[in-house]
Design goal:
Length: 332
């Protein structure tokens, strides 16, 4: 099964439908499987007194620390959702969006969303989890900021609400933008898969593309990565996002790693079989040998090319009788 790559546009459209469509075009060009936005009603998501996160203050640098005012400008209405979904359909790419409140869950369900992505911040939100779990859809659960017990609790809620384990993929994540390398803890991704016997993947917030590529090598079936048109744009997430060329490079690398992982069976590959006769060695005459002589360490040796008697039969051949004459370097 191919790794499912989600290009996370998030709120990097800056509230513009034109920019959102440009982001979709970039995702299509890069060859990802889905492009994901964020669906929220600001009034339902944050209080008017909620402050921006430190990284948001730093990235926005607009002197306004209100999370409410920042998010209100980035909100997409139902008409815009329909327009973007139709645009994705015309471009043959899956539209996804993360809902952040009950009203948004209902809206995306009515719009026919195929997969529901639960963000890290909602992993301890029981009513929210129960709501999504009751839909019986495919679910991708991000686990940033959580410990193994909180992941277990969230999964139990989803199961009890009606979502089957085989329809859930758990994503290891770190909710810091950007994530320092020493905080990635990528092995925890495999711990999630082994502990809950569940499909797992990785949502990446590091700078660069090395870590998601490593995640695929460690068995990730889903990769999610933020991207933008330009890292220098004004907005909370642009700086920790990939630019178009970087997204394309990540997708190419992931697809190469998928191919390179292979079947797990250790045997000569089709491409190297022709080289066996060139690189391997055979038993050859060290000097001229007459018919009837015994083979010994004095008259036989090991040299390229292959195709003759394998040197692995050395002990068996020593002491046996030459059935014909051999010139020096003749293959036995």
């Amino acid at each position: 099964m191919s790794v499912f790559i989600i290009a996370e546009a998030g709120v990097n459209h800056n509230g513009s439908v034109r920019l959102a469509k440009e982001l979709i075009d970039v995702a299509v060009e890069a060859g990802v499987d889905a492009v994901k936005f964020q669906t929220f009603k600001t009034e339902n998501l944050v209080s008017k007194t909620a402050q921006k996160a430190d990284y948001q203050k730093e990235n926005m640098n607009d002197g306004n620390n209100s999370q409410f005012e920042m998010l209100k400008k980035l909100e997409l209405d139902v008409t815009t959702h329909k327009e973007l979904m139709e645009y994705c359909q015309s471009k043959n790419i899956m539209f996804l969006s993360t809902p952040f409140d009950h009203e948004s869950i209902d809206m995306l369900e009515e719009l026919g969303l195929e997969i529901f992505k639960i963000p890290s911040g909602e992993i301890t939100n029981l009513p929210y989890l129960r709501h999504i779990g009751s839909l019986g859809k495919e679910v991708i659960l991000s686990t940033g900021m959580s410990d193994i017990g909180e992941v277990e609790d969230a999964l139990d809620i989803l199961y009890k609400a009606g979502t089957k384990k085989e329809n859930i993929t758990v994503l290891h994540a770190n909710t810091m933008y950007p994530t320092p390398m020493q905080d990635v803890n990528l092995r925890a991704m495999q711990t999630l898969g082994a502990t809950f016997d569940i499909a797992y993947g990785y949502s990446d917030h590091t700078l660069g593309i090395e870590v998601p590529i490593a995640a695929v090598a460690l068995g990730a079936t889903v990769i999610e990565k933020h991207f933008t048109l330009d890292k220098t744009m004004q907005g909370p997430d642009h700086k920790a996002s990939l630019e178009p060329d970087e997204l394309k490079a990540m997708v190419k690398a992931v697809r190469n790693i998928e191919i390179a992982l292979g079947s797990s069976i250790k045997k000569p590959s089709p491409s190297e079989i022709p080289n066996m006769k060139v690189a391997r060695k055979s038993l050859v005459a060290k000097c001229s040998i007459k018919k009837g002589e015994l083979f010994s360490e004095e008259n036989i040796t090991v040299k390229r090319a292959g195709g003759g008697i394998s040197p692995m039969r050395w002990d068996e051949i020593l002491g046996s009788v030459a059935s014909k004459d051999y010139e020096m370097d003749a293959v036995l």
